[in-house]
Specification:
This protein has helices at 17-34, 55-66, 97-107, 118-130; strands at 2-11, 37-43, 46-54, 71-82, 93-96. With 141 residues, the protein is of the alpha+beta class. The chain has a five-stranded mixed β-sheet, with helices on both faces. It is globular and about 35 Å long. The structure holds flavin mononucleotide.
Amino acid sequence: MQVRLLYVSSAVGPQTTTVTGSILKTARAFNKAQDITGVLCQGQGLFLQVLEGQRSAVNRLYARILADQRHKDVELLAYEEISARRFGAWAMAHVQLSSLDPMIQMKHPEFDPYTASGNLVMKELADLVAAGQILDELPQE
Ligand SMILES: Cc1cc2nc3c(=O)[nH]c(=O)nc-3n(C[C@H](O)[C@H](O)[C@H](O)COP(=O)(O)O)c2cc1C
């Protein structure tokens, strides 16, 4: 059984390219091995992440991510059983929020992932990925 999980969290310390690069490097190797796919959206001190895959694999990874000291205030926004993946092409796609934020603000002036509905946040992420905002990963073959 496959699930999709979405959470928001707040970075501890600055979101430098070194920190993000190191997270993505671990994530891509581990997720590929575990058949987990998804997207990590990052910027303005926030992380938004979608994880998709077998339920037990996703749950185990989420537990590890919860314990990670590089972020705090991890809040689960959505968790659902799925029959098809939305981000199946990426072990972990990367989207930078800062440059895109004006677009989000324009569309939804009230957009705050901590209070917005999980469905809305998921839709925003899917829109960003569909709009080709992925920064630095080619889809897997
Ligand atoms: C925002 C954020 C997202 C992360 N996403 C993933 C991920 O998708 N896959 C992964 O293996 N690790 C991810 N990590 C790293 C894990 O939290 C953890 O450091 C890594 O799995 C290594 O675990 P270990 O320190 O127990 O060996 C993420 C960390 C943060 C802060």
